[in-house]
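anyone seen this seq b4? input:
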Amino acid sequence: MLTLRGSSTSLLVWLASLVVTLLPLFPQAWVIGVMMAGYPKAFNPTSRTSIYSPEFRRKTSVVLLVLAILEGLTGFGAGPQTSSFVTELTLGLLTRGISLELHLALIAPLALFFVIHTVSGLGSLLILKGVKRNWIYQYLLPGTWIGLYLFTVYLDLNYFLS
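predicted toks r here
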């Protein structure tokens, strides 16, 4: 059971609550809140299923590669000079308008997986260097993850709102 007073997960619950509170401003942040509140082993450096494991980094790197290729393809498809080439290459599936919509829609998932992969790599590096303080892995790195992702989403939204 989860207890809030004196619990080692109280800060995680607080951070997850903060993410849920910010959901109206950053709708994509639900992933972080669910992961932090519902799966506390995700940030445990000794767990085989944590985000600091090599297997997790491998999976995120594959997802990042696919998203980066799609982002590049849709970026070229949205360009004024290259859109006709991408339309022909995709047999008419990616027109200039669809490419632009997909290109803009892929920014948030690409940022999410980039930040996850970076924070996971930083945590793995700290583990390899022998850093044993659990508060770094369970609080500081997830807090960094939330901050970087929300900053990226803010910059993305700022582009559309200004």
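Residues 134-161 form the longest helix (28 residues). Helices lie at 10-21, 30-38, 54-78, 83-89, 96-105, 107-128, 134-161. kinda curious what u guys think
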